[in-house]
Amino acid sequence: MTEPYDLITMGRIGVDIYPLQTGVPLAQVETFGKFLGGSATNVAVAAARLGRRTAVISRTGRDPFGDYLHQALRDFGVDDRWVTPVAGLPTPVTFCEIFPPDDFPLYFYRRPKAPDLAIRPEELDLAAVAAARIFWITGTGLCEEPSRAATLAALQARDRRGTTVFDLDWRPMFWGGEGGASGAGGATGAAARAAARPYYEAALRHATVAVGNVDEAEVATGLRDPKACAEALLDRGVELAVIKQGPKGVLAVHRDGRSVEVPPTPVEVVNGLGAGDAFGGSLCHGLLAGWELEPMMRHANAAGAIVASRLACSSAMPTAAEVEEFLAAR
After folding, report:
1. Phi, psi for residue 41 in degrees, rounded to 5
2. What is the 3-state secondary structure of 249-287?
């Protein structure tokens, strides 16, 4: 193997089909754009745009959309060697509606099963996973077998080497929420959260960084107060807990006692989807650079704000120069 990757992410990949019209219900949209998508993939793209050497572990269908994703990854400078097809499963597509500033419904087409949930433990290049400077996994990867076993196997092989980030990434519909298998129903569903929590706790035992919003942190900890969530995540073994608080900004708490709360960077929002992935790519960039908490959070907030001010996700990820220019103007 050559030099270790700066970042390897493992998780969702798919095609985002986004309206080219804002404020229009999906039923009335006439024109769409096609983009590389999936949270773990977007994080790898975001870090690559900042100059980092990245790769993705995921799966596609054996179809033209899968071919498109490979080409898009290469165009973004992300290594696609561990993105392979799964026979009989279509490449996922995701539609969204765009109602700025804060309503962006998502519609996932991942049936009968998403290929990225078909990753098997025996298929993993565990040596590369262990050697990466940062390894990034998501909560979605824990929702179904064999992806769950593969994710936990990768974490065990990693054995807390370097930096291991757990993106809490709560998508209740993948766990039986939204009134499906979750008896509680609702936007998240208590039964869905309860089903997920043991697997979140298992992953946290191997992670050094946990990042997510308050809803996602609640799945992992059972708590909703941001500071209490951060402390609970530290108690579960991570060294750094990052809690995104929406309009209140971001809270970062380190095991060594350092803590910072950074306000958001105001922008005119076009599409909020992908902002969290830009934040994640920037977070990895800052961790690799050894930045202090405050400049790291400010840079990550700025990267997210830039993407929120643009239509797409992957192709909207900013370069280092764009983030620096954005921060200098504030």
Report:
1. -70, -45
2. CEEEEECCCCEEEECCCCCCCCCCCCHHHHHHHHHHHHH
Q: Determine the Cα–Cα distance for residues 120 and 126; give it in Å rounded to an integer.
A: 12
| DSSP3 helix / strand / coil % (the chain, rounded to 5) | 40, 20, 35
Q: How far apart are CA 123 and CA 276, in angstroms?
A: 29
Tens-digit pLDDT string for the chain (330 aa): 579 999 999 999 999 999 999 999 999 999 999 999 999 999 999 999 999 999 999 999 999 999 999 999 999 999 999 999 999 999 999 999 999 988 998 899 998 999 999 999 999 999 999 999 999 999 999 999 999 999 999 999 998 889 999 999 998 888 875 433 333 344 457 888 888 999 999 999 999 999 999 999 999 999 999 999 999 999 999 999 999 998 899 999 999 999 999 998 889 999 988 999 999 999 999 999 999 999 999 999 999 999 999 988 899 999 999 999 999 998
What's the whole-model pTM score?
A: 0.95
